[in-house]
Amino acid sequence: MNRRQFTFGLSGAALSHLEAGTHHEAKADACIFLAMLGGVSQIDTFDPKPKLAALDGKIMDWSKEKKTDQPGLFAKPRKFVGSPFQFQKYGQCGREVSELLPHTAKHVDELAICRSVQSDNGNHPAAVFQMNTGFINPGNPSMGAWVTYGLGTGNQNLPAFVAMPDFRSIPFSGAQQWGSGYLPAEYQGTIMRAASEPIRDLASPGDVAPGLLEAEREALRGMNGGYAASREDNPDLRARMNSYELAYRMQMEVPRVLSIDAESAKVKEAYGLNDPVTASFGRRCLMARKLVEAGVRFVEIFTPSQSWDAHGDIRKNHEKNARETDQPIAALLADLKERGMLKRTLVTCMGEFGRTPDTPADQPMPGRDHNTRCQSMWFAGGGMKGGSMIGTTDEIGHKAVENIYHMHDVHATILHQMGLNDMRLTYYFGGRNRRLTDLGGRVIRELVG
Fold first, then answer.
1. Other CB atoms closer than 10 Å to residue 385's CB: what's the count?
2. What pLDDT digit, counting tens, does each position of 263-289 carry?
């Protein structure tokens, strides 16, 4: 059975695909990817820079730095911006973490931090594409689609890949960020919302008898099956049939799995569901835990588009976004660990790029601009080495100087922990074998347990 022939409709096919897809022993069965859209400042979270604090407010000439993604901004005189946040050491590993993240800091011994990740483009749309698909241009499969293509599903009644954008604004290009690109359509992500109806229009009409619905489904299955049998060269037909079947099964499974009411008051409080500031992100983090627990393979949670994009007033911007996400993220880590799930669930947290140590001199409220030369990100669980850290940036946090890794390497590491070799996970399209990591990535071995 090749990958083109695989469908989610038959559990036996799914299991054979799962066995055939793994290239080595997997350390993680599922991944929860936390996408901090806009670009989190490494200098204000996990990479303290005392030298920068000493230079705060002083004019800096960037004339020697010719390569930039924002020439208009960098043509002006610029001044250094020291972090307005204090750092202190946490955990047995003694890792320094900003006061922005007091809840996540308590779990630092579970985090494997890389402070030297680089990307290729400093414009949000292209950078978000690269974070999600490995490429700066649209039309490529997303991470979740690749993982689903490689491993199949762990639950026949739920999607294998779920995307949960923020209700306020979706990422640039929307569904392309969780799309299947040139992979068969069944590998695309399914949107779920942090609302009473996670999937729109899923519930059956209340005035239609169950027997009639089943009869309609059987009739539709027969007509579609006969039509598709003579058109084996059109994978979209099979994908559409599978989506109908999955939708029917989800009508029963989704309400059961995502019932927040069944959770204890303690759990709801931990995730911040009683606080309007943390409720949206917290609810989605709790949903992610429940989905992974039920066998969903890949869940991606997005902050609002450009939410961390602090060109002006770094303090106000990052305090707001950290306030919304810090407690829910910490609750997710604690909940997974308490349930014995963290060991087999890989949690990854990052943005599309980092931020600069300086701002235009005429900026009244100091902020930070886009920086592709370094960002700090972390993994937790899923076989990663908790309490570890790799990567060195220069004394002002402008660029990575040692143990430099690329976005492709982050993707290669995620695939590796899930039992997939990024060089072997391929799909023939456009005249060559395509990959999430293009020509290949490096597993960040220093962080792998």
1. 16
2. 999 999 999 999 999 999 999 999 999
Within 8 A by CB and 6+ apart from 168, the residues are 304
Range of the domain at 312: 30-198+265-447
Note whether residue 247 is domain-resident: no
| Cα gap 70→359, rounded to integer Å | 12
Please check the confidence at residue 137 and state whether its pLDDT lies above 80.
yes
Structure tokens at 39: 């670009």
The answer to whether residue 227 sits within a structural domain is no
In a domain, 404, yes or no: yes
Residue 262 has pLDDT above 50, yes or no: yes
User: Which is more confident, 1 or 62?
Assistant: 62
Structure tokens at 328: 């829910």
In which band, very low, low, confident or very high, does the pLDDT at 207 lie, cut at 50, 70 and 90?
low
At 180 the pLDDT is 97
Q: How far apart are the first and last CA of the chain?
A: 33
**How many angstroms separate the CA atoms of 285 and 301, rounded?**
8
Count of the separate structural domains present in the chain: 1
Give the whole-angstrom CA distance, residue 425 versus residue 435. Answer: 6
Quick check: is 233 in a domain?
no
User: In the beta sheet, which residues pair with residue 354?
Assistant: 371
Q: What six digits make up the tokens of 64?
A: 């020697």
Residues 205-238: b if buried by 16+ CB within 10 A, e if exposed: eeeeeeeeeeeeeeeeeeebeeebeeeeeebebb
d(CA 114, CA 404): 9
Alpha helices in 121-209 (DSSP H): 124-133, 143-151
CATH code of the domain covering residue 172:
3.40.720.10
* Residue 433 pLDDT greater than 80, yes or no: yes
Q: Return the pLDDT at 210.
A: 65
Bridge-partner residues for 424, per DSSP?
A: none
- Contact criterion met (CB below 8 Å) for 432 and 366: no
The token pair that represents 374 in the structure block: 């370094």
* Nearest alpha carbon to residue 109 among 126, 125, 124, 95: 95
For residue 257, pLDDT over 70 is answered with yes
Supply the mean pLDDT for the chain.
Answer: 88
For the record, the structure tokens of 235 come out as 């994978």
Q: Token pair for residue 182?
A: 């040139």
For residue 149, the surrounding DSSP H or E stretch is: helix 143-151
Report pLDDT for 60.
81
Looking at the chain, the whole-number percentage of residues with pLDDT higher than 90 is 71
